Amino acid sequence: MSTPPLLRMSGVSKAFPGVQALTGVEFELRAGEVHALMGENGAGKSTLIKMLAGVHTPDSGGVEMDGRPVSVTTPQRSVDLGIAVIHQELNLAPNLTVAQNLALGREPRTRLGTVDRKRLRREAAAKLERVGGGIDPDTVLGGLSVGMQQVVEIARAVAQNARVLVLDEPTAALSEAEAQRLFSLVEEMRGQGMGLLYISHRMEEVYRLADRITVFRDGHWVGTAPRSELEPEDIVARMVGRTLTDLYAHERHEPGEATLEAEGIGDGAGIGPLDLTLRAGEIVGLGGLIGAGRTEAAQLIFGAERIRTGRLRVGGRAVDHRSPLDAIRNGVGYVPESRKEQALFPEMSIRDNVVTTGVGLDRVSDFGVLRSGRISRRVAAQVEALRVRCSSALQRMTELSGGNQQKVVLGRWLAIAPRVLLLDEPTRGVDIGAKQEIYRIIDRLARDGVAVLIISSDLPELLGVSDRVLVMRNGSIAAELTREEATEETVMLHATGVAAGSR
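Above: the chain sequence. Below: its structure as tokens.
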């Protein structure tokens, strides 16, 4: 008789008002296995995770552990069953120490009922040692990098005797070194017999770690297979229901007149002097290592940071962007790196997020009075053009997948017809299908005459969408490469200062 899987979900369905999130899905996880779950945003992965965490319960179907039916009805019940979920947004208290976070709600007590601080620290050190150590228990958590905070949360899960560990996009905010440490930790926990459910859009991670791969699409189970039996193209085809023949859908653009010109701009504190020109109908990539100053350069242009040196011109006219509103009035838009913290009003509707810049409202108002019907028609047209998956334009942003949230952010700028659009990591945390749609939108903007600057740490993406590439190093532009000159190797040589001719 074969050993039952550690975890099995059979025929599980879940519906929310207006949305069938999961329909009869199948999933199983074995002890000592890394099982990757892949699918587009909105495929049902998050709903499955929340069921395992005890946040949602199935409408139908069942969950088993070690072959026995269980009910995961609350988060505490999930913990009691040995299930731990490490979310993208970590569930920790940044103002407390590492030791306090590891014992939160279960603090050791003295005979007088006060917290036993010596025991608290001793137990925390032991918990951290189980996941590699190297973290001082007395450190305030908020002072650690995201990668180290993630290790703390994993240490807490291991200390609670978790047998099932769910990792949701665990490397999204990690440096390369932190990601490598996480991979080693995952492999170590697999060797100890833990079952790991690994959710990621990053194919290279899945192929490094996963023993088996399951694909969801539109709330349905598409298939499960050993990693060795699947090519990356097979996985993508299963995820999107079609073969992506040309991911970037990019045609070379013939640039027009200079739309934005920066001459020696800088912040007086390490960024600059920067010289760059963006032309109408052209997509310019901005590459470089993390910390090279790419985001800061975009913020200078957009007025989020003050230009202390140099000059900026838009449409041949000298401008002074003292604030983002000045930039917007001059036709410059900016999609920041962190959409959740900087680009969205998550509790507001799609409709309100699209019109929130306040610019272009003259098209939907009469003598300063906003016309609701006109706004609704305009937003509905944007939603349709951008293929935003939603029940209506009144749906809250928190209910959308990451890819659809990003399309709404882009829709905000399309609504005001910018002359220049600055895009900082526009596809971070977005699935492969949504990425292709975002590339289509960017290509359409360029064909409509918008000057586009795209910052990306994904080199294939940067090279795939750009007409030419600028490379930054140490706060300045180190090289300008034509589309023919720009390869992953040449970009990295200039980014690291190895290439001959780097500035």
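The longest strand covers residues 19-29.
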